[in-house]
Structure formats: structure tokens, C-alpha cells
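WARN retry 2 of 3 for item q-0093 after timeout on previous attempt; input resubmitted unchanged.
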Amino acid sequence: MLRKPGSLSAVAAFVAALAAPAAHAEWGLNMTRGVTQISRDVYSLHMTIFWWCVAIAVFVFGWMVVSLVKFRKSKGAIPDTAMVHSTKAEIIWTVIPVVILVILAVPSARTLIQIDDSSKTQLSIKVTGFQWKWQYDYLDKGVSYFSTLKRDSDAARQMNSGIDVNGVDNYLLDVDNPLVVPVGTKVRVLITAQDVIHAWWVPAFAVKKDAIPGFVNEAWFEVDADKTGTYRGQCTELCGRDHGFMPIVVKAVSKEDFEAWLKAKQDEQKQASLPAPATAG
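OK item q-0093 returned
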């Protein structure tokens, strides 16, 4: 049978993409391990359940294939027209799933308890979603500011802008004012919204919480002490026309750098709040 060269080249390209490690990283088909202990616990739980599902699928579909091959008509198999009851079989296929569910329930419950344990936090930040930006309030620190899509991305996204988006760093994933947090510090985020429902999601922290008007959700994270860097997320609740243009950027810095940044930000906002000097008439 003849095959079209185009089809062969497409198949070859697909196989090559599967074989390339860079392609796997770009696709991001699996969860990220993250940079917090809780994110690694979530990843471990995810992979545990995944491999249980793989084992169950192999067993069930393997049994089906063996049955289809071994008891096919050409082998002389005759269908049983009578309903045969087996108490032993029913007990087995009831007990085994129950045992599996109990095995999976224990680590799941443990991880869920950890996710909701916001006790002993060292820094509290209120996160408020707007159409289409975020506001960060460092509670009891006197610092508050908005975080919006960076201007170069905003300009490039406009229709007929003529700007090559490939030349814009972190296109649609960068902001003018990132959230700054210290590493090795348990940070509590109180998440709400001013207008419609949003969602604050940073995959590297395993944090995703809805921001709902009139309601405060709570989450926490603690970036590992050796994981300073920039981590990105997005709003994951369809919130209107520019939903895709309100990214989240978190900058994790050392405790010393955070204190210096906080002091500078406090001085800057204190200076901005002072009344303008009177001019001579």
C-alpha cells in the first residue's frame, strides 16, 4: 500500500518530538515538583495515585485481552446463557477496591491537612483580584501596590501592533510589580476579589485558590531557603475580556534582601502619601 510522504514526515516529526527532552519540558504534561515542601508532597501524592491507576489499567485491560484471545469463537468457546452467581468473586471485587481506596486515602488526607495548616505563619499578605490586575497588601507592614501586565507585553498583544511577540521577554507572563517574599518564611495569603471571581495560581508553590468577592480564601507557602528566583502563575478563573492578561509573578529573595526591599518600599509609599509642598502664589 502506498503512503503519502507528507504523512510519513508528520509521523517522524511527532516521534522526534516525543524523543526530545526539551519537548517534554516545553509541553509540561506532568505536574511540577515545585520549590516548596508542600508542592513536593502534592507531586508525590499525584504520582502515587497515577501509578496505582496505571497498575489497575494494565490488570483490567490485560485480563480483557487474555479473555478475548483465549475464549474466542475460533477456539471453540461457547457463551454461557445462564447467570452464574459467585459469592467469592463478588467479595473479591468489592474488597480489593476498598483496600486500594483506604491505602490512597491515608496520604491524601495527610496532604490535605498540611495544605490547610496555615498556623505559625511569619508573613501575611492580602491578595485582591481586579479586572484585570492584582493588588498585594502586606498586612501590618504598611506596603500596598498593584501588579499589572508589563507594558511591553501589553503593547505587543494589541491587534495590529506590529510588534514581534517573540522579541518580548516572558510575553504575557511578566508584570510591572511582582509579589516579593522571603525564602525560608511561611507566608500566608488571604485571597479575595473586588469585582468578579478570579483565581490565584502559582504551580511552583502548589497554590491555587479562588478569589471571590465578599469572601476570603486562605493559602500558604514556604519557598525553600536555597530556591531564590522568580516564579510565575496566572489567573485560572474566566473573569472577563482580558482574563488571559493578568499574570502572577512572585520574586523569592533572601531574608536580608526582603527586609531591604520592604524598608525601601515603606519609605517610598510614606513619601508618596505626604502632601505636596505649597507653592508661593
